[in-house]
Batch of 2 targets.
Target 1
Amino acid sequence: MKITSPRRIVGSNAERSRLHNRQVVLGHVREQQPIGRAEIARISGLSTQAVSNIIAELEEDGFLLEAGRQTGGRGLPALQYRLNGDGAAALGIEVRPDAMFGALVNLEGETLFTTREALADNAPVTVASMARRIRAAALETRPAGQRMLGAGVVMPGPFGNVGISGAGQSALQGWEDTDAAALFEEALEMGVIIENDATAAAVAERVRGVAAGLRTFCFIYFGAGLGLGMVADGEVQRGAFGNAGEVGHVVVRPGGRQCACGNRGCLETYASRIAARARLAEAGIALTSTDDIDCLYRDRNPALMAWLDEAAEPLSQAIGMIENLFDPETVILGGAMPDAVLDHLISGLALPGGSVAVRPDRQTPRILRGACGRLTAALGGAALVIHDTITPRIAAKT
Ligand SMILES: [Zn+2]
């Protein structure tokens, strides 16, 4: 893909400062609603006049509603405000090599619509046309007058022309000369954020899954390949070019299995859907969907069970490395794998004892299974847009 940074940052300093103040006000309302102007001004450090102006603007835009007057106290009770959950929504779209997922999420984080569409191929023109269809279906379901905040489009990395571009089955084909943000903005007719799948999944888990309340954690994402999403002190970590977290191409078996990236012994060739598919193909079983894996697991299919046994050790080794590199509160496993298979993988891990994660005062388990299911990345895409609207903190520093 031709984008040098997966996120678009636009606007002058004054515009950004105005947007930041809107985020601050919306953030305080969401956390402490109902709340009055004077209270917001006191917590935020903005002047009462500035808060009043912002609130008027947010009310006009449909983000806030009046919520009566506070009783008690002297003088005229202060007018209170709360978030208008259905006042605005964001679209999340995940593009995988063989399917697209869509989700519409409102300002309060409630899911209004979800869909999965199979892709015959993943050429830009096919993906754009499917994106249009998902947009139309999603927008049909929303309440009248609801504003669209934009779309978070989630794609497998890596972004840009780098050494592991086009790494076989986990990558999209024919996107080298495509400006992904421009393509989706045209197809969806709204502002677009492009994000990698693992990072979006990490955000979804923080907004509504098992990472709620955590500030520093990692998420191992089973897409076609294997990605790593990282949130450190409440902020997603992207690296200089949006490619941080290509954990699938970390070598865990020097001289081991041949990977499509050109190296041997990459984690992805042992612990990923690609690896599962390859092991099952050797047994004459063609894998077409996550549901197939679920059925095979319920039957305790010998080829699938053999793959799970084989994946445990390289995955354990990678998790130990992730812990020592990032010192996370926990490492979450999730994405396009059935919950039962993820649970089996987790129960089979032999995590290294020599890890900074081995502490007597742990608050959370070393490993958790994600709670957002197979829509996690699409939900995360929408959550990123909502967070960009409401919270100055989870978005990357600009
Ligand atoms: Zn590789």
Note: Residues 329 and 370 are 14 Å apart (CA to CA).
Target 2
Amino acid sequence: MRPRTDEAFALEQDQADPLRAFRDEFHVPAAADVGGEGAGPALYFVGNSLGLMPRATRAALAQELDDWARFGVEGHFHAKHPWYPYHEALRAGLAHVVGATEREVVAMNSLTVNLHLLMVSFYRPTRERYKIVIEDTAFPSDSYAVLSQLDFHARALGFDPARGLIRLKPRAGEASIRTDDILAAIDREHATIALVMLGGVNYLTGQLFDLRAITTFTRERGIAVGWDLAHAAGNVSLRLHEDGPDFAAWCSYKYLNSGPGALAGAFVHERHLGDATFPRFAGWWGNDPATRFTMTPDFIPSATADAWSLSNPPILAACPLRVSLDIFTRASMPALRAKSLRLTAYLESLLADLNARPGHARVGVLTPTDPAQRGCQLSLLLPGDARAAHKALQRRGVVADYREPSVVRVAPVPLYNTFHDVWRFASILGEVV
Ligand SMILES: Cc1ncc(COP(=O)(O)O)c(C=O)c1O
């Protein structure tokens, strides 16, 4: 039997949604403020780019400013949320979101910075074993980061950096990269590969990789493995501790709703913690808190992932993350993922309805149809003049992301998107395409 797709069904789903109250915890932009015509809120489907602002963030930031005004430096101990241990209060929430132990996670810097810091520790090339594996459509910043790491080490070790990058591609005519093909590529060149670093969810296609299978296979061949979880953290169920990668990093401005350029996160597996001889770049905030303020010149690494942090945390950037993690802890990742699976499946069914209309131009989908291989995002391939169609969607109050030549990425986010949002999007798309 075909799943129901009518408007009444969407409204019923929203009524029965145990997470429905969370939408009211966010500011949803008015359509008129984001390029749309007409009244009412926008249909916001770009939580994969910049998540919406939680209403609680403004007051939380004002509290930090008030505490700064009131206490000055004493705010480190007397602020409502004391600044000195501020980053420690973020650990439980981060651990929940990425499936780690609290010791394995740290909030620091931004994503590309963290990837570099972690590669300093985990990309340890030799003249013979120096290659890095990424997806062909890795986010450009990841490509630049690994190319510059290759170049940096090539100067000292004398290998050819131009031969150092293995880019995984889908088979001809396919959009996703098959797990078997990934494993075969790693196996083929395993003696020369030093690092596998993939995006947990590919930013363009929305493909969710099999973290466990790829991590296990890679580690069995003595190769370091790290994940860029920019599009996975807060979107899909992660079990980093169990899956066992060496490291991971993610940003917090997408699904984690912590604001533009927000404080990012990093994971280092427990097996690497507490080793004072581990190669890393160091700063005082990575020092064991027991001796941090003795101000001695010798670095004693913290026994947690904090050992990778350099500077004291920026409180005004950490504050929105604290607010956001509180929301995630209350909503819980299992409940969010359960709703997300249904919301995206509903969007998929509506697209199938559109495509079944006689004479309707076909909307393609780049994202895998298997729900276990995707997060909330569907990457649509629009027929005809896709740029014009995207503009027309925007005029109708839809905020979705356009990538050349014809991809529109749509991310129904379970914290604040509704089934009715998805229904309205599909009916507008039907008129526009
Ligand atoms: C997959 C991925 N990697 C890296 C980045 C770059 O992040 P940042 O500018 O925070 O370093 C992004 C940004 O959107 C991304 O989506």
Note: The chain has two domains: 7-47+333-432, 64-331.
